[in-house]
Specification:
Helix 1 links the parallel strand 1 and strand 2. Strands 2-1-3-5-4 form a 5-stranded mixed β-sheet, sandwiched between helices. It is globular. By secondary structure, it is an alpha/beta fold. The chain has a single domain, classed as 3-Layer(aba) Sandwich (Rossmann fold). 42% of the residues are buried. It comes from Mycolicibacterium nivoides. Belongs to the peptidase A31 family.
């Protein structure tokens, strides 16, 4: 399969809201979009770097935990538009650190878009809280918009 885009769901669906990236990735996978690879990962920097190296577009989804969290709030950012420190993962080694490592190693996708969802609970449970579960369809729609508007995908679809 020719991979034009990678949708990366980061998280652990056995840690309550930390599974939001996994839930979004599963919904995207169900759509079976041509040229789009879907990957679920716990956020291991090595596997993320391997997966996104050379991919024209990567859309990543992760849970975010911060002091001013509003459970279910969705944020979108891209490198260069906002400081990497603005992304606060619910993991010890988050996307911001993976991005920095990828930059140092010359292993970045051509275009990277990250969606984070503010979480309420990351305890050992298998279900998302209602506020975070409510954000899943919105993030799926936002990803579909990113995929439809990506210039490299549009050019290929017109051929």
């Amino acid at each position: 399969m020719n991979v034009d885009a990678l949708v990366l769901g980061i998280g652990n669906d056995f840690r309550c809201d930390d599974g939001v990236g996994v839930a979004v990735a599963r919904r995207i996978a169900e759509l079976q979009i041509a040229g789009v690879r879907v990957m679920i990962d716990v956020g291991d920097p090595g596997s993320v770097l391997d997966a996104w190296t050379g991919v024209p577009l990567v859309v990543a989804v992760d849970a975010a935990k911060c002091d001013a969290a509003q459970p279910g709030r969705i944020r979108r950012w891209s490198p260069g538009r906002h400081a990497a420190s603005a992304v606060v993962s619910s993991h010890a080694f988050g996307l911001a650190q993976t991005l920095s490592l990828g930059e140092a190693l010359g292993r970045l996708p051509r275009r990277l878009v990250i969606f984070t969802v503010d979480v309420e609970d990351v305890s050992r449970q298998a279900n998302l809280t209602p506020a975070v579960a409510g954000a899943v369809p919105q993030v799926v729609e936002a990803i579909l918009t990113e995929l439809e508007s990506d210039p490299s995908r549009c050019a290929r679809d017109q051929q």
